[in-house]
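Feature request, filed as a ticket because there's no other form

It would be nice if the structure record came with a short human-readable summary line next to the tokens. Right now we just get the raw output. Example of a typical job, pasted below so the devs can see what we mean:
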Amino acid sequence: MLEFEKFGEVADIPYDMGLLDGLSDPVIVVNEKYNIVHHNRAYKRILEADPLSNATVALTKNKSITATIKKCLSGIPGQSNEIFMPNPIGLYFSVNMWRLPELRSEGPAWAMMVLRDVTAEKRAEEMRADFVANVSHELRSPLSALLGFIETLQGPAANDPGANKRFLGIMHSEAERMSRLIGDLLTLSKVESDEHISPDEIVEIGPIVKGVRSALSGEAENKGMKIEFIEEERIPLLLGDPDELTQVVQNLLANAINYGTPDNNIRLEIKNSSEMPGTGGEGIAIAVTNKGEGIPEAELSRITERFYRVDKGRSRSMGGTGLGLAIVKHIIGRHRGFLEIESELNQKTTFTVTLPSVSLELTKDM
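Raw output as currently delivered:
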């Protein structure tokens, strides 16, 4: 087990340890007694490290790390490992080690450990694995249904007109479901790949929102709902992609209709935002509110994940793919905006999209 000798101080090491403070990666130096004798500023800053911290305890009690240090000090080159640090937010690090000095030198030796943050890579890997598993699951059900009905139509129901009509209707529905899923997957893939590129087209949000409202009014009326539209005066322009912004409003409004209680109206608002979350700048807020079962607080942080559904059976029965809010999240991210969700169980739920506005002076220069 690693122990601390002079944590935060240079412990008689014949090297200029001050140079390590210029590195952005956390670095610690361990002596032959497995005592941590030095660390750089990045270790302190990134891991909130001190002798009593959870992160440091996780490192010092890791048997694999200790074994790797032993190999490094014995002169075996190219030692590396990986470790999970629970503090401060849970990070994965790739640990690479070098012996100081080289093996042929006489006297005491130290192991210098450089920790590279690979959290994003690990989580991306986990997301890819989950994504493949989820897509496989989502496609397996309709494909199995199609194959089952085809076998039935080729066999027992081959000469049954009534069964043919009923089964073909179900097959058509399942095929449409797969088509929607593939369409949403392609949309999500494109939005994610473009998320780092901010759109630069000047957009007036009012006509977009009104257009979506008109397109979905029929669906709302079928459930005894009306879409109440409220727009503040002097809504500024913004930089955006009209098609993507249309999809954001469409997905949110469609969800409000699908998950709202019949015979209750939906409130659709466009208003000025004097303070953007996170930046404090001016912006535009689009809010969609419905009355219904609401979303449990524990689910709020997860409903924008791919394929995550609060009520899985209900979502599928309404034709949902489980990707709508994930698409919304990434489109808003591309527009450098924010999505806030507020919900009261059995009362109401409000989705608010806040987007940065653009000044008239800037639009004249574009």
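Something like this underneath would help us a lot:
Confidence is low (pLDDT under 50) at residues 4-10.
The chain has two domains: 18-118, 197-358.
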